[in-house]
């Protein structure tokens, strides 16, 4: 059946989930481009590839709905082919093949060559890190490792991504050089567990060495760290962060909870005392560091007292950036053997309470910035504002700096010095200095 209006054989890649999945989509698109395929990201195309997420219930639901939507379009003749890859496909391929048979083929997270083949392309080994980035030109994600060796009880990621595999330092430097040559000025380093970097490949933690190599890449102005892990944290990373101006004084470290009972059940390998001590070391060794964390509420067995302990701790620690998830009961994880005993509405209520508290903390911290000047990168223009970020703000998840566009012009991707004039809970308003 002839497809209606869409340009023939254009491959449309749709990405769901996290920045690591986005990175994988960019690698796929880079391979397709190198095979002279017409490929786009989340635009029109008669061949659709859905890179799914299978992390928690909400994400799985979104992935299934996206597959069903694209399959419907295929059945109605709007598009020709639907392929599915990524974490949901890795985790549930047999069920998906049975439940949604109209998908042309399902691929796991390590089956890129097979996916390329059905798209009429060959996997090109020589394309080290070459990808079609989808982020604004001035920043890009750099995935330094895949998989995870940690035993966190609630997490299905090791089921979908396998064991931890670090990418060699030399390969990452080449990738960074290519990105810088394309105008990238900010690298956002990602992995499932950033701080585990090197333990497999070099038998020791080498994140600090990787950072020392990346700061020498010409053109890269900012390097940002995401997804650190508290246990066995390599403190030499903080020395490099303090000494190297190109490393943002920023760290994302999901901590999940603080009650010793819950941390033990989560198999996080740490305690309240050790976690708090580590955060205090961050603030001592890198003055002014912005700490981002993520918490889970409603974990099996979490009592009102455990939750109150978490809330009090959040009040005391005053994180610069914080996100909060409700626990998702994931089959084949260790925690799935526990009773999911916290009712959904209580989980949601607890998440709301944490985010209300964080909004207040963020507002107070932002008020202290009024009158100060910051180096800001401009990501885009939106309505009557130029929108930028300080080194303390990661793309898409943190605060933004809004600069009125009425009588000034700022170039996207450029850095400017601005003075903060006012602040809300999650945004700063500024004028160019
Ligand atoms: S470190 Fe992160 S990815 Fe690894 S098991 Fe724990 S929560 Fe999952």
Explain this structure.
- By secondary structure, this protein is α/β, with parallel strands linked by helices.
- The strands form four sheets. The chain has a six-stranded parallel β-sheet. Strands 2-1-3-4-5 form a five-stranded parallel β-sheet, with helices on both faces. It has a five-stranded mixed β-barrel with strand order 14-15-16-18-17.
- It has helices at residues 19-34, 57-75, 87-99, 112-118, 157-161, 169-181, 207-214, 236-243, 260-265, 272-285, 304-317, 344-367, and strands at residues 10-15, 38-41, 47-52, 81-86, 105-106, 139-143, 145-146, 165-166, 186-190, 222-225, 247-252, 290-297, 321-326, 373-382, 385-389, 400-404, 415-423, 427-432.
- Helix 6 (169-181) runs parallel beside helix 7.
- The protein has twelve helices and 18 strands.
Series of H and E elements: EHEEHEHEHEEHEHEHEHEHHEHEHEEEEE
Number of distinct helices: 12
Q: Largest sheet, described in full?
A: 6 strands, parallel
Low-confidence stretches: none
Q: Mean of the pLDDT scores?
A: 96
Judging from the principal axes of the Cα atoms, what is the shape? globular
Number of strands: 18
Distance between the termini: 60 Å
Structural category: alpha/beta
Bound molecules: iron/sulfur cluster
- What topology, given as strand order, has the largest sheet? 6-9-10-11-12-13
Radius of gyration: 22 Å
- Strand content bin: 15-25%
Give helix % range: 25-40%
Question: What would you say about this model in short?
Answer:
With about 425 residues, the chain is of the alpha/beta class. The protein has 12 helices and 18 strands. The protein is about 35% helix and about 20% strand.
């Amino acid at each position: 059946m002839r497809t209606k209006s869409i340009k023939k054989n254009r491959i449309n890649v749709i990405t769901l989930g996290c920045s690591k999945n986005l990175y994988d989509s960019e690698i796929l698109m880079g391979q397709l481009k190198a095979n002279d395929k017409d490929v786009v990201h989340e635009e029109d195309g008669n061949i659709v590839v859905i890179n799914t997420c299978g992390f928690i219930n909400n994400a799985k639901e979104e992935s299934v709905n996206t597959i069903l939507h694209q399959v419907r379009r295929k059945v109605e003749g709007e598009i020709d082919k639907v392929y599915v890859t990524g974490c949901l496909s890795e985790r549930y391929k047999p069920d998906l093949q049975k439940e949604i048979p109209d998908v042309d083929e399902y691929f796991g997270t390590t089956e890129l060559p097979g996916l390329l083949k059905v798209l009429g392309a060959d996997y090109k080994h020589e394309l080290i890190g070459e990808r079609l980035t989808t982020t604004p030109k001035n920043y890009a994600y750099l995935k330094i490792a895949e998989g995870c060796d940690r035993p966190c009880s609630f997490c299905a990621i090791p089921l979908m991504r396998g064991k931890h595999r670090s990418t060699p330092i030399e390969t990452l430097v080449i990738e960074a050089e290519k990105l810088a040559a394309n105008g990238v000025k900010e690298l956002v380093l990602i992995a499932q567990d950033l701080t585990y970097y090197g333990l497999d490949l070099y038998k020791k933690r080498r994140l600090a060495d990787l950072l020392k190599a990346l700061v020498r890449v010409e053109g890269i102005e900012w390097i940002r760290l995401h997804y650190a892990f508290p246990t066995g944290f390599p403190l030499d990373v903080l020395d490099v962060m303090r000494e190297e101006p190109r490393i943002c004084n920023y760290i994302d470290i999901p901590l999940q909870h603080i009650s010793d009972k819950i941390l033990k059940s989560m198999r996080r390998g740490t305690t309240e005392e050790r976690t708090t001590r580590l955060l205090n070391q961050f603030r001592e060794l890198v003055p002014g560091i912005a700490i981002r964390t993520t918490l889970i509420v409603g974990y099996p067995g979490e009592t009102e007292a455990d939750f109150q302990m978490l809330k009090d701790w959040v009040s005391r620690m005053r994180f610069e950036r914080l996100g909060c998830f409700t626990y998702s009961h994931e089959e084949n994880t260790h925690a799935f053997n526990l009773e999911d005993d916290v009712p959904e509405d209580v989980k949601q209520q607890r998440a709301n309470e944490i985010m209300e508290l964080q909004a207040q903390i963020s507002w107070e911290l932002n008020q202290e910035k009024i009158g100060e000047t910051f180096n800001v990168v401009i990501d885009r223009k939106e309505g009557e504002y130029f929108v930028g970020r300080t080194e303390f703000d990661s793309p898409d998840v943190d605060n933004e700096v809004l600069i009125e566009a009425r009588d000034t012009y700022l170039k996207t991707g450029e850095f400017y010095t601005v003075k903060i004039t006012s602040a809300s809970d999650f945004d700063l308003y500024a004028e160019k200095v």
